[in-house]
Amino acid sequence: MNFIAILSQKRKILCLACMYSFLFLLFCLNSGAQYSFTDLDALLKQNQKNLEGNFAIVIWKDGKLIYQKQTTDFTAKTQAPILNSGNWLTAALVMTFVDEGKISLDDKVSKYIPIFSTYMKSYITLRNCLTHTTGIKAEEGIGKIFEKSKFQTLEDEVNSFAKKEIQSNPGTEFFYSEIGPDIVARVLEVITKKSFDRLIQERLLRPLKMRGTSFTNDEGGAVNPTGGAHSTAIDFVNFLAMLLNKGVFEGKQILSEKSINELEKAQFVQLPVKYTPKLTEGLHYGLGVWLEDIAADGSGSVISGNNLMGLYPFIDKCRNYAAILILAKPKEDEKKEFHRLLKAAIDSQIQSNCSE
Length: 356
What we know:
The protein is α+β, with helices and mostly antiparallel strands. It has one domain (37-347): DD-peptidase/beta-lactamase superfamily (Beta-lactamase). 37% of the residues lie in helices and 14% in strands. The protein has 12 helices and 13 strands. The protein starts with a helix and ends in a 9-residue tail after the last helix.
């Protein structure tokens, strides 16, 4: 009788264990299938022409990729130009030096590059450089921003900027151009005696396992910290994930949370806008990055490297996800509405944690 009772009890325990195992597996299946990006799939299919045929898109959330779509001849690991989205990487590199106390954003450029004092530009700060508020005369238009450099070194190019005409006092108007980021990149070369492309590899790209990303100019001539980078969707989402994870990537602190907050804070919000590309009209600017939505404290809740040529990397802090759309053949075109629809399709599946 005791033997039968013990056997019956063991069977009950076994049944309970099986039931709990089944419930656990069911929970895991539901968790893995909690997102249904059918609307996003449909949007991408409808816009094949707008996407120039080949593209890749990845979405990262809670430590993993939750969506990935790519075309046959262009994958999430295929390298492509990221153009002015490289400003975001350049600004992050600068902040690694700020973290170490080697520079301050309010340092004068002339402290490191004396020629700026010679040409009456001693009041320009590193912050001015990262926010396109140097006041140095520049030309409007995408072609002017990304035209092939005639200089062999970043030093030569930046010295030529020092000789340019001043069109406004530093910090008094916003004018989007290649000038400021290139100047601050040259400052980093001066204080380290290393090239910009080497610095960004050592301090940012290698720690983030961005093996398919480079600023090196394979055609010769000066490195271009503003628009000369190439990257992949998988690489860039590593960078975005690090920012979203308070500066930590695979257990290593790449940037301090304080520096990330500074990157994502609206700078000079009251300034008149002398020039900004149509794609970014109405947006505020942080350090090397666009702020699509701003919280009450002035911090960005949606931060993007909104690219003049279609590439779209961004972070949504309220929904705690990062995403990037990268094109095989970026071209000058108006994609603002498509970017809005793309984000809306993603947002429809991910709940916001911010109060409206």
